[in-house]
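INTERNAL AUDIT FORM
Audit reference: QA-55
Scope: verify that the stored structure record matches its stored sequence.
Auditor: D.O.
Record contents follow.
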Amino acid sequence: MIDQLLGIHHVTAIAGDAQQNLDFYTKVLGLTLVKKTVNFDDPFTYHLYFGDEVGSPGTLLTFFPWSLSARRGRKGPDQIASYAFSVPQSSIQFWKNRLEEFHVPVSAVERRFGEDVLVGNDPDGFVFELVGISATPRHGRTGSVPGEFVIVGLHSVTLCERSAAPSMEYLTEVLGFRQTAREGERTRLSVGASAGVTYVDILERPDDARGSMGAGIIHHVAFRAADDEAQVRIRQELLRSGTEVTPVIDRTYFHSIYFHEPGGVLLEVATDGPGFLTDESKDELGTHLKLPPQHEPSRSDIEKHLPKLH
């Protein structure tokens, strides 16, 4: 069993319009655009990274924005249904007021596993949650949101599965998650230690139509490996378990391996380093289009194709 995952590293989703996506996550939720690059496998599509002011692992939400007219995905089982951020418990009312001021659809405050939760929808229809935590924040930053209210990191993701048992068994027996609680149809698993604990919730929806990939759908979730050596050991354990897993892939800011859990959700293990300060200073993060070496010769064509961002 793998016991070296440190928590959630990032969540990646497919958005529609790039400018709309940028505006919402920086101006409404107050995240920092820490890297403006491209999908390494499709360089004529942006890959936008949002997080704390230095892009710390555990704070990162990333998007492939296709276009405003992009084919929409269909939500359903065997997908990641939502992502959740941790916010200070004392900030919940601030966030409810703020989202309402920006005309963002948001629920009343609900209680889940002893925590206050706000559920909202972004312009592409993604379900995002803000969870009030009383523990010392894992990450702090300042930006368009006052410091005492700022989003402090990723809290959890929710998997929607047609059959929950195989996924729960895989996450606990192979990936080293711990089942911590159950409320109604929601089962909570945890991973990480101390202040780095994050969660995967599993919902079982056997009668719903299976989802399909497209704009408005979460593509994958990545979990943290401390370094390259830990990642290699994790990959070896995955292979021993019978999991089909990719070779290590260089994503410039971290190294990645990819595989699927039994329900079909794509999972990733990403290293904490090298990080986002390798090619931009802290003050410059997100201000330049950064391309991996293999796409640098095509910069002119790529820049002509990508929409301008302001």
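Auditor finding: record pair retrieved intact. The chain has one domain: 8-305.
Action required: none
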